[in-house]
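Need a sequence for this fold. Nothing fancy.
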């Protein structure tokens, strides 16, 4: 029992709901390290350990659920009529989700975090927003927000109504870091540095097959004499829709720095927006990602 308890705790720290092959690898590693625990019956010698680990881990999750652990509480089966009779599916952490459903901060519960959420909504309605307050409250209410997203699986429009601050450019990156512990823009730029040159080689080798649009894009790149690295990244991104034979008119958007932003990004689920100086033609001032 002591062995099983420690194994269950160690597994849960890594993954709350391991797959069958993962449990099997744990059982196999156990008897490999401690041959004296090998079972005298069966082919593998660890089938009994595998089953015991499975049920011990289930009991361990039940204890955590009773203690109020959010990560397992979202998978609590509920009895009753209506939608609760729908097929039960486990809400397990997806790949890369380090903080799936974290526990509430100390001295906070549903009611106190809901008050902080309401104050966030009120702050977002102001013309002059307190960015420091917004950042602090978004960090504080992360556990409540994750529980809503994982447990209720709301529509994007509902999330936008309840958590308007989440759709700010800065908070998108911060929320990604809270969930995965990775830098969103840093990871994207590193990947673009890694795969950009290869994409440009592909474009050049097959530019005749993609018509005049691809040729114009590569000719513009060849004409550049300054900030070549930046222009290569831009060409790698702009060439992707052409290479995939997709319409990029709703993805690559442009506006002047004096334009109203809302009409420009209306209808775009995800887009790259280039903000241009009013006095210069097609001179990029900055790029942002638009999410609706």
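Here you go.
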């Amino acid at each position: 029992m002591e062995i099983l308890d420690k194994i269950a705790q160690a597994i849960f720290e890594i993954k709350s709901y391991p797959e069958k092959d993962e449990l099997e690898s744990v059982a196999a590693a156990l008897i490999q390290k401690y041959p004296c625990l090998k079972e005298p019956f069966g082919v593998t010698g660890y089938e009994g350990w595998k089953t015991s680990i499975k049920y011990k881990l289930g009991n361990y999750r039940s204890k955590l659920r009773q203690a109020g652990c959010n990560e397992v509480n979202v998978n609590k089966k509920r009895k009753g009529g209506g939608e609760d009779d729908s097929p039960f599916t486990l809400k397990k952490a997806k790949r890369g989700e380090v903080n799936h459903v974290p526990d509430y901060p100390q001295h906070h519960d549903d009611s106190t975090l809901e008050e902080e959420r309401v104050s966030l909504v009120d702050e977002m309605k102001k013309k002059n927003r307190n960015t420091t307050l917004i950042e602090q409250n978004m960090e504080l209410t992360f556990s409540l927000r994750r529980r809503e997203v994982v447990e209720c699986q709301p529509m994007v429009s509902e999330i936008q109504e309840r958590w308007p601050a989440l759709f700010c450019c800065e908070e998108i990156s911060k929320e990604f870091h809270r969930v995965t512990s990775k830098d969103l823009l840093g990871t994207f730029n590193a990947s673009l540095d890694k795969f950009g040159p290869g994409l440009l080689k592909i474009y050049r080798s097959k530019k005749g097959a993609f018509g005049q649009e691809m040729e114009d894009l590569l000719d513009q790149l060849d004409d550049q004499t300054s900030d070549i690295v930046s222009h290569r990244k831009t060409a790698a991104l702009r060439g992707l829709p052409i290479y995939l034979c997709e319409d990029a008119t709703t993805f690559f958007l442009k506006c002047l720095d004096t334009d109203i932003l809302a009409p420009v990004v209306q209808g775009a689920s995800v887009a790259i927006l280039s903000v241009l100086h009013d006095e210069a033609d097609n001179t990029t001032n900055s790029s942002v990602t638009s999410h609706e």
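For context: The two ends are 51 Å apart (CA to CA).
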